[in-house]
Amino acid sequence: MLTIGQLARYVGVSTKTIRVYHDKGLLDEPGRDASGYRRYDADDAIELIKIRTLAQAGVPLARIRELRSATGEEFQQALREVDEELTARIRGLRTTRRRLRRLGAGRLAPLPDEVGAHLELLVRWRFSPRWVDLQRDLWILVFATHPGQAIALFEDQREILADPALRRLFLEYDHAYDLDAGDPRLDDLARRVVEASRERYGTGDPPQLDAASEIPVLIQGMVNEASPAWRRLDTLIRDAVLGETRGDGSEFVE
Length: 254
What we know:
Elements (H helix, E strand, L loop, with lengths): L3 H8 L3 H9 L18 H15 L4 H7 L4 H33 L8 H12 L4 H17 L1 H16 L1 H12 L9 H17 L13 H12 L1 H19 L8
GO molecular function: DNA binding; DNA-binding transcription factor activity
Keywords: DNA-binding
Protein name: MerR family transcriptional regulator
């Protein structure tokens, strides 16, 4: 027969914890000996180990109390559910650990791995650091504000840049950053951007966007704020699209 202190040391809990389990109906309170001390037996030790194991696995005490009256099959099913939850938690903890290690190495990645790999490709394709940083910030905002559409839009962008001709067009857009807003090269670039967009999407928006999507405004707003030349490009492109819609031939006409 064990005292409460001996039982606590054997199982690895405190005597206070055992008393809490008594109060909450998880562990039957044993009778007392002639000296007034509770005395526990092997069955109590086994039951306490079960309670402690479930509690450490994150099972709420109320649920543990319910499982005391469960059948063998019900108890096994509960254990399987706990195992699945633990597996998911372990996966999440491993992901968190990888992020912590990247943070410690100065490589914090607030984006999915495939987006990070894509940004590294932009560097190898000789996009400017300014452009790469802008793309990173834009994708963070898109994934944060429109998670349901972000991955499809990203895949579309990745397919575009996999085409060497379209990639050269984006490189020109990037390098137009320092041009004067009145530079005639912007007119030619805007015309070619519109032609490439027509060829890929027709006269509509990318199919990943619904009609009420705020993503184009979000993206173009950040791009336009970065450079007067880029803002001018956006104006030229919009004028071309509106001119095509009106059918008045007014695109790129001052």
